[in-house]
Amino acid sequence: MxxxxxxxxxxxxxxxxxxxxxxxxxxxxLFARGHGGTFLLRIEDTDRERxxxxxxxxxxxxxxxxxxxxxxxxVRQFSRSDRHAEVAREMLARGAAYKCFSTQGEIEAFREAxxxxxxxxxxxxxxxxxxxxTYPDAPYVIRLKAPREGVTVVEDKVQGDxxxxxxxxxDMILLRSDGTPTYMHAVVVDDHDMGVxxxxxxxxxxxxxxxxxxxxxxxxxDVPVFAHIPLIHGPDGKKLSKRHGAVGLEEYQxxxxxxxxxxxxxxxxxxxxxxxxxxxxxQAREWxxxxxxxxxxxxLDFKKLEHVSGQHIAMMADEALMTELEAYxxxxxxxxxxxxxxxxxQAAMPVLKERAKTFxxxxxKAAFATVERPIVxxxxxxxxxDDVSRGILSELTPQLQTVSWTREELEAxxxxxxxxxxxxxxxxxxxxxxxxxxxxxxxxxxxxxxxxGRDEVVGRLSDxxx
Length: 466
Prior knowledge:
Blueprint: E1 6-9, H1 19-34, E2 38-43, H2 53-66, E3 75-76, H3 81-94, E4 97-100, H4 104-117, E5 141-144, E6 151-156, E7 160-165, E8 173-175, H5 183-193, E9 198-202, H6 206-218, E10 225-229, E11 232-233, H7 249-254, H8 259-268, H9 281-287, E12 298-299, H10 302-315, H11 318-331, H12 339-352, H13 359-365, H14 367-370, H15 379-382, H16 387-400, H17 407-420, H18 425-437, H19 445-452, H20 454-464
Parallel strand pairs: 1-2, 2-3, 9-10, 11-12
Antiparallel strand pairs: 4-5, 5-8, 6-7
């Protein structure tokens, strides 16, 4: 492509950042970044009653957590109202729009008569071709003078050519009687002024595209490339909603999915590159093209999400994983690591991240490194610390005070004590795990010993055998 690519994500700050919106942002980000283009962020806050600062903050935080950086300052649509009105008046001067003095009562009467007669209720304004000399001294709206005949074709990179009969598209309002612009009009003006070349958004906007194309043409502006992506459905094939579980992006952060895994999974929801399921950001940026987006709605699959999440946890560098793990603790309002716990978790990271699907999984395995003495075993672990097991651990403890602290020597020492009682390593693992971690599930007892160090291990075993 020789054209400089400019994409945008344009959410309304009226609630949480929906996972579908996050995927739309991701697709725009991948397409722009992969082509050396620009990714812009616009907050469409023209609905003043429903837009809130809290919702905008949640959108920005969600995008930041997901790792989708935008270029330049955030554009807020409401602040550009004067520009939107200016364009509406210019369209009026061009003859691409007209003043409509019809009242709400007159419009409703027109529609009631149309329903009674069995014809289209699409409002046909009597002011469309009226002589200006007949204009009353009354409030008016500015309407688009849309073509009444022929068709408007949306040349869509995902849906193909989608044709709309112009007789089914109304003369939409551009500027209300109070001088405020409508959302549909503001979007076109903003996309033009921001230099947007590709509009990638949900296919629920497909009909909007046909009407917005008419505004672009009315101003003689270039029409951007459209790509309307199918919505995300729940596992049952129905539109994703709260009944399917989490739908807000912040909920996924709170459940402990790593951002890289979330990016990977969202990219595969409706887009594919051969049979590749797990890939890096660099690969996604290189591979992503609009032609790879399917027309069928994608289905949310938590098992696949967990699989991809686990793959990314295993792939991450230990320090980066540690940083994101601590960010998760803060986001989930969980206690931060102490300095000692942080050092132990960092040291244990190579074994902790194996087979962990989420950060809660990882933290459960890391409990041995974060718990403080004296350890109180849970109900299952406590059963492994019977009198016989305590006796064996009492015999092992003094030997650990002098042994060389390597895996080979630790395994040999534990094996030797076990053999003296006719027990293999497997039989000693349960009481050792109970004493060192207080749980029945943890990393290898020898991995725990190496992370905790001699003094802590001897101390925990001594506590368990008192």
